[in-house]
Structures are given as C-alpha cells and as structure tokens.
Design goal:
The protein contains two helices and three strands; from the N terminus they run H-E-H-E-E. Strands 1-2-3 form a three-stranded mixed sheet, covered by helices on one side. The two termini are 25 Å apart.
C-alpha cells in the first residue's frame, strides 16, 4: 500500500484483528491484488482522503458465500473515500 500511495495525499489506516489467523496464501499474488485495489482507489480520490484496510477472522457458523465450503476464513475489507462507480457502469 505504501508504494501505491507514495506521492499522494491519501492516508492508509489499518484495522487488523489482534487474533488474526494465519493464512495459506501466495504472498506475491495477494500483494498484487491489494496493490491493484489501492491503485484504483487512489485514482478515484484525486483530492486525497483515507483508505481503510480491515482484516478479521470470520466467526465459525457465520454465513458464507455459497461458493465457499464451511471452514475458517479471514476477511479483508478495503474502504475508500472515492467518488464511486457511476450507476450506469455497475
């Protein structure tokens, strides 16, 4: 995130659960995904703002998308203060 935001007036805020579970992920792939999301958010916030990244464990028994098998998951949410996507482009 710091690379994607260098030179901008956007402040990153991280809200990471203290008890966040370890994940079996490809470090480079997740870095590329998060970087692309942050680049898009940066482009949508030309006057600056805040990008908030939240990571938390999904509680056992919590509703999951149909494509996911029951199990332990970590959810990453990224929120920005950008202009949003015009309704005709959604």
């Amino acid at each position: 995130m710091h690379f994607a935001l260098s030179g901008s007036t956007i402040k990153p805020v991280f809200e990471i659960a203290d008890d966040l579970s370890a994940c079996d992920i490809d470090e480079h792939q997740i870095g590329q995904v998060l970087g692309n999301i942050v680049f898009n958010a940066r482009d949508a916030m030309p006057r600056g703002g805040v990008i908030t990244v939240t990571a938390e464990n999904i509680a056992s028994g919590a509703p999951l998308p149909a494509a996911l098998a029951p199990g332990r998951y970590v959810r990453i949410d990224i929120r920005d203060q950008g202009t949003g996507i015009p309704p005709d482009n959604l």
